[in-house]
Design goal:
5 helices, mainly alpha, 70% helix, 0% strand
Amino acid sequence: MEVGKVSTSMGPLFALIFVVVLMICATVIVFASLLARYKQRGLQYRERLAALDKGAALPVLAEPVASPRPFEPRTYLLRGLVWLFVGTAIVISLGALAMGGSSAYNRVSQANFAKANGATDEQVRMIMNDRHSDGPGPGIALIGLIPMGVGLAYLITYRSERANRHKAPETEQA
């Protein structure tokens, strides 16, 4: 390792830790939700068994809240817009991260560290003028095209469903 190429950037490490903690939190929330539903079903089951043993009428189970039908055009519109904008945000954010070079703070930190460890003035000047990024290339932003494609597919489906709904009454009246 060269004296002038010491990396003190904590950006990628921080991002990795943040993503891992976020995934762990999401997993804990999902499992807590599933466990709560499991326990509620167990209590309902035991209540119904006790009612059967006593010869009483079975308690009425609460019906789950009705969700909108999955083929409603508005559902496709909402899903399409969400996926499209999430994909756009991913493209923009990853593109900005990939295009951005080393920050001035990182270059100054690297230069000070190198100078403290015996680097020459020329090496320190090279560190300060080095604006390349050791991060991923701009191609990483293309990952965002995947959710953008899903969003566009939903929007196309929304458009075709809406067109089919408007054509259907006209053909029935004729």
